[in-house]
Structure prediction request, 121 residues.
Amino acid sequence: MSSVIAPPLIGATPDTFAYKTIKERWPKIVTKALDELHRSYHQTVKELGQEYGDDINSIIAKISETRYRMETNKPLLDFEGKTEDEKKWNIHLNKMREMAGPDNSTWYNLPWLFVEWYGLN
Prediction:
């Protein structure tokens, strides 16, 4: 048995699972979520009030920005840091930036599993 650890999967390598996940799977998932938010908007406002509609619009804007950054391979952004979990994520994200460099701290260039979990948060 070899003691060599395989390098992490990254999305920058075409024709790999990581590449196809970032390029094809994630945008479809995000688009479905956005579609559902758009479809539920009017009913939500009718039942719960405009404040909830404003919240939906804010969520749509944030998710749309994330999708754009993903599809154009922009650097990952810090979380707002309001919760302990977000603060921990920012610590790990900064470690990734140190390893990869600020210009390579993008959706396709960081380790795929890290970016997968980042996207879920």
Remarks:
- Residues 75-121 form one domain.
- The CA atoms of residues 77 and 93 lie 9 Å apart.
